[in-house]
Amino acid sequence: MEENDAEEAKRLMLKIAAILDEARSSYATHNRKLKELSLLRSKSPSPSLFFSAFSKILTPLFDFQRRLASADRVVSFVSTFAAVTAADEFLDHFLKFLLVAAAASNKTARYRACQIVSEIILRLPDDAEVSSDLWDEVIEWMMVRVRDKIPVVRTFAVRALSRFVNDSVNSDILDLFLEMLPLEQNADVRKMIVLSLPPSSATSQVIIDCTLDVSESVRKAAYCVLANKFPLQSLSIKLRTVILRRGLADRSVAVSKECFKLLKDEWLIKCCNGDPLELLKYLDVETYESVSESVMEALLKAGLVKLQNGASIQQYILSNGDRTEGDLVHCPPRIQLMEAEVSLYWRTVCKHLQSEAHAKGSDAAATMGTEAEVYAAEASDKNDLLEKILPATVGEYIELVRAHTNAGANHRFASRQLLLLGAMFDFSDVSNRKAAGAFLHELMCKPPEHEDDNEGNIVVLGDGLSFGGDNEWAEAVASLARKVHATAGEFEEVVLAIIEELAQPCRERTANYVQWMHSLSLTGLFLKNTKSLRFLQGKAIEPDELLQSLLLPGAKQSHLDVQRIAVRCLGLFGLLERKPSAELLKQLRISYMKGPHSISIESCKALIDLVMWHGPQEIDKALKLNIPCQMNNEKTTFSPVNFSDSEGDLDIETLDILFSGFENDDMASPLPSNEDECVHAILGEGFAKILLLSDNYPSIPVSLHHVLLSKLIYLYFSDVSEHLHRLKQCLSVFFELYPCLSANHKASITIFCVSLTKSFIPVMRSMWPGIFGNSAGSPFMVSQMRKRAVQASRFMLQMVQIPLYTKETQPDCEDSSTEHPQVIDSSAEVPFECCEEGLALRIAAEVASFQSKKTAAEKAYVSALCRVLVLLQFRKSEQGPIKFMRRLLHRVIECVSTEKDLVKELKRMADRLMTIDGQPDQELLQEEVNLILGKLELECDLDLDASVSMPQTPVAPPAKPARSRRRVRIEEDSSDEGSPSVVPATHNTVKSRTQRASKTAAMTKMSSACRTLKINEMEDLEEDSDVTSEDSDASD
């Protein structure tokens, strides 16, 4: 009987193998082979015999590592066969067999098991009869495999669980997906998780966040899921606009196409029946104008906006008898008011038609013959269509805009859209220009919108700076005014006449604060849109008169809103001056030092702009400061300024006053209305620009560059900038560009490198808690501050070690036109004080300056410095710094003698220095030491007469005899360091443990070498080291 069963099993295995061999060749054979395999199974003597043969034949697949199409075809065939046999026990046995493979230690077995399980689950019909216990076991093991260390195993495990994630019973699967998605490093696994997430309020934000993923495939998958699982009505307006803003502007063409497919197929056609106006109503065009405009541009470019017959702006200009009942009372009889979506729609359509006509006209001018005629005909058609849409005359256009401006705040958005249409009209006709000029005069003389609060005070609506209450409205008015008054000097003449009229009560000191705001806002609009103060000569109000009678008195007003807008106007006025006015500068300095926070912000902006435009030397010269030029050139730090001293700002340089703003903690808090605006953010952005353009400001001493760089690095990593997103973005771009832009010539390279190496120690001193007067706080706060300081040290180290590139490029050869940036050989160009040697010596001197008895904060600080020190390299050509460093390392090791791992790293560094020391036995003369210290600008009083040999790591005497196994390990570790062991070796123990000891020593050497070479290994500072530990203070 057993022999018959064996022969039958062998026969079954041969037949199953033949079927699988044919199935792996092509998918076309699968249906036929499924029938053959099912027939073979039905004729089998017993189900267990068939399953045994089937599993044995399939086992080699679990050891096949290569991902070939033939193997995938076998997996598909087997999964389909298991799915069609779901009604009997074969599926149960097969799933249990697969779960055993899913728990195997072999990664290929786990991969194939999860792959087949996922295929089976996705192919099973909904009414498949599988025991609940088996499904629970499958789900449990797949959830375990989601955390597998192999990415492809995790991918198929997620795919297997995707069918169960919708069930409320299996909510733990969804929780697992949401937990693993932000932690997952592999893009394919993230993509599979995104595709598996169900539509719900809990997952919508998570999927939308994936539209910012670094992987193109994940972003594309996110838009695919949003299109297929989330209808337009299920998303909030904010989420809709976020999706469109990111997708349409994505850097990847494939992702932007996927987002446009979502916009067109799902939102426009399916939800809005192809009507762009209906789609705009879902986007809140008044709040998200830029997104709505980009949507219309995309639809127009794709040709999806079809204009209906007779549809135009002219339909809103009715005859006298066509007035509808829904119009407002104050609406003129001939005008029907537009909705916000309609006004944006027609503005974008007209803008598109005008640009298309211009492009076709340019193509016609650039070609000849029939092609030129075709382009000219297309341009003519676009212009004809544009004329049919726009109002027939300028008078009708003015009447349309006037009706909307008079309709109140509810139609303010539509009014601005119509104002922007003015650029498409021709105002060369005198009558048209006169009508438009009268409307503009009426518009500019209209007082700002205001209301009374609960206490009866008048409150002006808007941002309090721009004309009309917002910058977009001011730009629209200015663009129409410059279009109407296009003649040279006409714009200035007209606007100044209005300003002179509005400023009359202000000069007579009879104006209320609304009149002050009105006059100053229009003045700001004028100063922003004129090119020079010479256009004011001979006009209604002269430049000096404007400054003395309006701007300076406004800056001294008691009302803060008037002060704020006046200070802004002073900054704009100063930019137009050929030489800055002393009175203007004094007022800006006083407002910056003495004014409230909102006034200090505006005055800081103005001073930064004026310093960059005129130069700091011109600013101080205009103020007639008594500062010797020689003293300025020898300046090494910024002079502190006491803001509470009202008389102390007369003989202080402007840059000193600005830099002192960093020391004022009150200036670090942002405005409630704008979280990105504070004095520290403006100063950081301004000084970053000054450093980038330092060649334009030779009056700023080079010795101050490292002070500015230190402050910018500190600001970038401080908690002040945590919520200042604009500042973080600005500084990240600055740190990327600063080394490259400094590589124009040798002097610039030296300045940059010196600034960076000299900035390291001041930055670390200012950021490390508990030393040099820095506040500490709770253990948690101390840990966070130390982590931030360690990040800053790693960042500065990377900046020191990156290669410098020149902006000039040259071909690879004479016949080649390809240009490449040239890498500067820093070893040949830059002296040691500007490179890693200088930074290493500064760090070593800083560590050696600490006494033997240190506080807990000082110990952590010294340890962090030493972990940076061991990552620095010395050039063989710098023999003097090498010898000096070998001397200093003796003191450095003494300072951290209690940290054995760090002592090992320092000893390895000493060994490296000894190998590149050309004359290791030659002593360094004191004159050479003084020369090195002088180049580094260090005052270091150290005892360098000690021996260069490294001190041994102290080992406490054991209280009882040590075990032989422990002695061997210590001896091997010590021998790896090249120093004699302090523990005597036992020969018989060494002989019996030679293999294990050698392996331990080899593994120790490998791990130590990797830790020395890789900067990223400094991550352990933030996790395990005492440097950033919360309880290190307590332990010490």
Description of the molecule:
By secondary structure, this protein is mostly helical. Among the domains are: about 1-65; about 85-200, Leucine-rich Repeat Variant; about 740-805 and about 830-940, no CATH class. It contains 47 helices and four strands. The strands form two sheets. Strands 1-2 form a two-stranded antiparallel sheet. Strands 3-4 form a two-stranded antiparallel ribbon. A hairpin with a 5-residue loop joins strand 1 (about 450) and strand 2. Helix 5 (about 90-100) packs antiparallel against helix 6, helix 6 runs parallel beside helix 8 (about 150-160) and helix 38 (about 835-850) packs parallel to helix 40 (about 880-895). It is flat and about 120 Å long. Residues about 320-330, about 805-830, about 955-1000 and about 1005-1035 have low confidence and may be disordered. Belongs to the CND3 (condensin subunit 3) family. Its main location: nucleus. Keywords: Cell cycle, Cell division, Chromosome, DNA condensation, Mitosis.
Please describe the structure with a list of short key phrases separated by commas or semicolons:
disordered C terminus; two-stranded antiparallel sheet; two-stranded antiparallel ribbon; mainly alpha; Condensin complex subunit 3; 4 strands; 1036 residues; 47 helices; ARM-type_fold; Cnd3_C; Leucine-rich Repeat Variant; single chain; cell cycle
